[in-house]
Amino acid sequence: MILPKIRDPRFITLRRGGTLTDADHRLLALWAAACAEHVLPLFESVQPSDPRPRGAIEQIRAWTRGEIRMMQARAAGGGAMAAARVLTGAARHAAYAAGQAGVVAHVAAHELGAAAYAIKAARAAAPAGEGERAGRRECHWQRQQLPDEIRELVLDDQRLRNGICWSVFDC
Question: If you compute the radius of gyration of the chain from its CA atoms, what whole number of angstroms results?
């Protein structure tokens, strides 16, 4: 579970009654895509012929450019999550990160799911005893990728949802 029971209006677009601008929604999607792509090799090394996670990342980026509709990005995200379900470990988490990134077009709050699963993937791929350190490195890398326009929003979201995101944002 990575979404709160009560939706945060900061992650609901203005046209749906929230406070999120379209520009910031696109930035959240791009950041989620970057987080997922950073660990994507962990999936592709196990399933090199499965294009679904990479496709979800490509589709969310296309959505940010206005090239596809939300439903197409969402469907691609679902495909990446289907690819994850049959796997274990780092590959599974990396595919889930891509899936979560893909569905940010539908629900902006999934941005944190992409980041959290990417951290879980980095932890799972690390040598024995190095998982926590690898997770902190991934968390720091992700924070360095945050655009200034959404930085405080995402950091506050990490603080608020850290407990339901496996406490991966303690970095």
Answer: 15
Distance CA 143, CA 153 (A): 12
Q: Is residue 3 part of a domain?
A: no
Question: With 0-12 CB in 10 A as exposed, 13-18 as middle and 19+ as buried, what is 31?
Answer: buried
Decide if 146 is inside a domain. Answer: yes
Instruction: Count Cβ neighbours within 10 Å for each residue of 106-128 and write b for 16 or more, e otherwise.
Output: ebbbbbbbbbbbbbbbbbbbbee
Place of tokens 């994507």: 40
CA–CA distances in Å: residue 126 to residues 42, 131, 136: 11, 5, 12
Residue 29 lies inside a defined structural domain of this protein: yes
DSSP code of residue 146: -
Name residues whose C-beta falls within 8 Å of residue 65's C-beta, 6 or more positions apart in sequence.
none
User: Phi then psi for 19, rounded to 5 degrees?
Assistant: -120, 5
C-beta of residue 46 within 8 angstroms of C-beta of residue 86: no
* Stated pTM of the model: 0.97
Helix axes 70-85, 89-102, angle to 10 degrees: 170
Question: Which amino acid type is present at position 60?
Answer: I
Residue 43 backbone phi and psi in degrees, to 5? -80, -50
Closest to 25 in 3D by CA, of 91, 94, 111, 95 = 111
* Structural domain contains residue 130: yes
| Residue ranges in the chain whose pLDDT is less than 70 | 1
